[in-house]
Every structure is written in C-alpha cells, then in structure tokens.
Amino acid sequence: MDNIIEVLELTKRFGDFAAVDNISFTVKPGEIFAFLGPNGAGKSTTIKMLTTLLASTSGSVRLNGYNPVNSPGLVRRSFGIVFQDPSLDDELTAWENMEFHGVLYGVEKKLRRRRIEELMNFVELWDRRKSLVKQFSGGMKRRLEIARGLLHHPKVMFLDEPTLGLDPQTRNSMWTYLQKLNKEEGVTVFFTTHYMEEAAKIAQRIAIIDHGRIIAIGKLEELLGETQTTSLEEAFLKLTGSTIRDEEAGAADQMRMRHQVWRGRR
Amino acid sequence: MSTIYIMWLRELKRYWRSKSRIVGSLGQPLLFLLALGYGMGSVFQRAGEGNYINFLAPGIVGMSIIFTAVFSGVQVIWDRQFGFLKETMVAPVSRFNIMIGRTLGGATIATLQGVVVFLLALIPGFRPYNWALMLPAVLVMFLVAVLFTALGTAIASVLSDMQGFQLIMNFLVMPLFFLSGALFPLSGLPAALSLVTKFDPLSYGIDALRELLLNQGVFGLGLDTSVLAVVTLIFLAAGSYLFSKIQI
Ligand SMILES: Nc1ncnc2c1ncn2[C@@H]1O[C@H](COP(=O)(O)OP(=O)(O)OP(=O)(O)O)[C@@H](O)[C@H]1O
Ligand SMILES: [Mg+2]
User: Angle formed by the axes of helices A232-240 and A220-227, to 10°?
Assistant: First the structure.
C-alpha cells in the first residue's frame, strides 16, 4: 500500500457553510503528519470524517485501504484517537477508564494490565488510579486521555490538539513516547496543534488548512522556502493572514483552556 | 461478548455509585404507593374491587421500571454531552453489541429497582398469592425493562441535546404510565380509553405482573408475554439501527 491515508476532494457542509471545502492529501505509512490551521479551520471536522464519526458531504477517504462509509469496522480497527474534547467517563475511576478502553480494543488481558500500569505511571496517575475521574483537574484528565489513547498500538494514531492544557514535562515525554512508537512499530501519527514549535520539531510533513481549504502542504523546509520565512510560525502567519484573526484565535484558545480547567475543578 | 459485558458493567457501576439516583428513584414509587394506596383504598374497596394496595403494587413496580429504564436508555444523551459517547463510537467493535450491552445494563438496573419496590410494597401489606411465581414475575419485569430501555436508547440516539429529555419524560413516559392501567383496572373502561390502553405496551407488562402476583390478569399471560416480546424485539431493532447511525 502506498498511502495509509488518502483523502480526495473531501467536503463537509453544515447547511450552506463548508467547514471542509474540497481538500485532498495523502499520508504515507510511518509518517508523522501535522495538520495545522487557525480555530475553526476544519481540522477536527476532517478528523471526524476520517474516523467514521461524521459522514462527508462529498469526496472520498481511504484509511489503511478501507472506506469509512462502506467498511467502518475495518477502519475503526486501524486507528486510535485522542480527541480534542473530553471523552472520559467521569463516573468511573481512572483505572476503570483505562481497563474499559483496553477491553473495547481487544487488548489481551496480561498485556493490557501491564500497559495500563506502565502508561499510568508514565503520566503520573498510577497513585490516583482509584480516584473517580470527576475529581481530576483539567490537566490530569488530559493526561489520562493520552495514556488511554496509547493503550493499544494501531496503524494510525490521530491526536487532535493532544497537548492543549498540558505542562511542558508531560508534553515532552508524550512526544518522546510517540516518536518511539513511530520508530519501533511504524505507527503513523496524524496530529493537530496550535504550538508551532511542536509541529516544526515533531512533524515530518505539514499541511496548513484555513477556511476549510488546504493552503500549503509539504516538508518544513518546503513551506519555509515557499513563504520565504525562517520559522514555521512566520510561515503560518503569512499563509493564514491577518493579525486580528490570530489575536482572536489566541483569545478563543485561552478561553477554551480556561473552560477546560474550570471544568476540571468543578 | 466482552463488549456487551463491559458496557453492562459500566451501567451497573455508574448506577451503584449514584446513591442519590437510587434513593430518588425509589422515593417516587413509594409516595405513589402510600398516598394513593391509603388515599383511594376505601373508595376502591367500596366499589367492590378489593384491596387497593394489593392491586396497586404491581402497577407501581411497573412504574419504577418504566421510569428507570427510559432514564437509562436516555443516558445516551448525557454520554454525548459529556463526550464519552465518542470513545465508544470509534471503538473497533460492533455498535450493535455496544447498544445491546448498554440496554442490558439499563434493564438490569430497572429490574433491580422493580424488585426493590416490590419488597418495599410488602411493608404496607402487599402479598403475592403464590411466592413460587416470583421468578416468572421477575422475568416479566426484565422483559418490560429491556423494552423501555431500548425505547429510550432509540429516541436518545436521534436527539442531540438535553432539552429532548424533558420532552420524552412529559410526552412519552407520563402518558405511557398513566394510560397503562397501573393505577386503575383495565376492565370496565370507557371504550375510547380501553382502546388506548391496548396500544400501551406497559399495560401488558403490568397485566402480566397482576396475573402472576395476584391472579388478576385481564388479557391473559399468553397475550401479555407475546405482545411484550414482539414489541421488545421491534424496539431493540429500531434502537440498534438508530444507535449505529449516530454521528458526532
Ligand atoms: N456540528 C456542527 N454544526 C455546524 N457547524 C459546525 C459543526 N461542527 C463544526 N462546525 C463548524 O465547522 C468549522 C470547523 O470546525 P472544526 O471543529 O473542524 O475546526 P478546527 O479546525 O478543529 O478548530 P479548532 O482549532 O478551534 O479546534 C467551524 O466554523 C465550526 O463552527
Ligand atoms: Mg478542533
């Protein structure tokens, strides 16, 4: 197989509004691919269509060779995902959330128990494994979501702003872990982030999406060359334009983070 | 199999941990049983219908089951709101099994609730005429519970927000409960009301319970259980279809 992800002329409309507007791109097996764009650009919507959560308006998708519309089961067997929005069961304990995921994904018991302990130690939540998730802070919940996402080792790993609200320590060790997974098991990594340094450092290829359209795609050097800039941040700003929009985006981002923290403390 | 089990287990754990939900959902049936049982008891007796507490108890058991079951089914809306639904919807297992696990979990809870209400009804004097029929009575409770959990799941699968929940409670569960003969005998009703009660699946559930616990059925156990079984299958089919089509 040439490409593990193949997207052709994919469109998603909500009413008249095109959240994703005729995008095409491919990702090679074993690649680490960053999907960047301002708030509301259509990143999460694209991921939802790739992961069988949302039907597209038109266009086609192939993930690991399968079509999410015709064979959702085979597609679901091919990927793992860390969502942008919370997706834990607050009424279960941290350990139960992990165990639940492991059972759903058919991770064999001995391996499951070993990995749960390993990953919960890794995100420093092993001591809190018996606490109900509703007692966790926003950052702790995020760490648990990431540990849970790593519990099984799929062909493709989707991470939608995985590092949002995480402290730098956890952020670093998470990327180290993912890079190791990528190298040792050839897991393809598809992620979004608003931290440009992160994307520049981790990603082997980058796509920039704005208003539902892909406006640039390529290796970091290629993007820098095209835009005649010296950093991804500059290139991103040049491509996605107006400073006002970016300030708005920044504010929205902060709001969302505050919201997450607030939700965590409730 | 493991999918069904883990979904079932989740429902039970969540239920067991929300003590307020347990207490709350026992309070209401108890209030109905005591207030109506003692309040209407003498009128009922004078009308020659016998002991009202006895008559009412199976109806109140049915009431606690329908409320708990629909409420469990409707948890899909909560899971959507709090995001957990996504986690189950991308899992590499069939959504049919997920739906069945959820439904069996909700139905188990509703049945437990029904049994507890049954036991509580013994305090003000309710007595089944034959204790040996307790087991089939519990099976009927479970069938009714599956039926209404599946109904709740089916409806919740097409609703996207909490507002829908009040709508379901007010325009579906309340009428189903009041028109089921939980509170009044199904025989000797005005023709129109009698017809309506025949379209309410809960009528057959409560009738079957009265047959088994009091030997006082109207439709006959055969008809009761056939109707319940067929409607349960229809709701399970509809529920699992709609659940499998959920988009986030
Ligand atoms: N269910 C929906 N109904 C209507 N509009 C929607 C829906 N989901 C997303 N949208 C719209 O589609 C656009 C793209 O949203 P999306 O969540 O994909 O953005 P994003 O790139 O992930 O942004 P962010 O960086 O903020 O996460 C937004 O304008 C959003 O308002
Ligand atoms: Mg997003």
Answer: 50
